[in-house]
């Protein structure tokens, strides 16, 4: 069995927060195979997250799309470049690649920013869509625009929804589901 979708949470996160459980339930109710792994929060670093996803690597292929939130997109980009896995599409929510200027997050996230040219990730997916808000309290909008540009991604700006998380009222993410539906 190959996964149709892989959902990657963000820093200090888990797959049972924000809109991720809602999306998981919607996609699985449509008969899709969805993976939403728990990545380590203690000792959070790229290598520890990679070990988790490596266990599922045989079930990820050209028809698998990745969905990532916050730090998740940086991990996905690094993983695609490192592992040279060809996948279907990328759906990136509140994406960034680099230091956001918040010391606690920058310290723990630093191992995820491995590549100087992340546009190389474009070799490994069909298309990318970046969804972000105009008032994210963590990720400067310029950083979401920059990763979108580097990945040649369609940009969807969702007004006044902060970090696209539960704290901003995002327990469902209908804008993301709409983009997924466009791709069949």
TrEMBL record:
One of its GO terms (molecular function) is hydrolase activity. Transmembrane segments: none annotated. InterPro entries: AB_hydrolase_fold, RBBP9/YdeN. This is Serine hydrolase family protein. It comes from Faecalibacterium prausnitzii.
């Amino acid at each position: 069995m190959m996964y149709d979708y892989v959902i990657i949470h963000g820093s200090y996160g888990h797959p049972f927060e924000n809109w991720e459980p809602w999306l998981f339930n919607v996609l699985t109710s449509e008969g899709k195979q969805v993976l939403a792994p728990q990545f380590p929060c203690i000792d959070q670093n790229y290598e520890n997250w990679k070990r988790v996803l490596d266990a599922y690597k045989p079930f990820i292929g050209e028809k698998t799309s990745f969905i990532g939130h916050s730090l998740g997109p940086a991990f996905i980009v690094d993983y695609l470049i490192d592992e040279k896995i060809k996948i279907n599409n990328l759906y990136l929510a509140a994406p960034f690649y680099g230091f956001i200027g918040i010391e606690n997050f920058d310290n723990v996230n630093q191992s995820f920013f491995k590549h100087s040219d992340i546009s190389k990730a474009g070799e490994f997916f069909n298309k990318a869509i970046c969804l972000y808000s105009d008032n994210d309290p963590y990720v400067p909008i310029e950083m979401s625009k920059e990763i979108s540009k580097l990945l040649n991604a369609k940009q969807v700006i969702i007004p006044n929804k902060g970090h696209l998380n539960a704290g901003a009222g995002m327990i469902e993410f209908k804008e993301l589901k709409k983009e997924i539906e466009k791709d069949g």
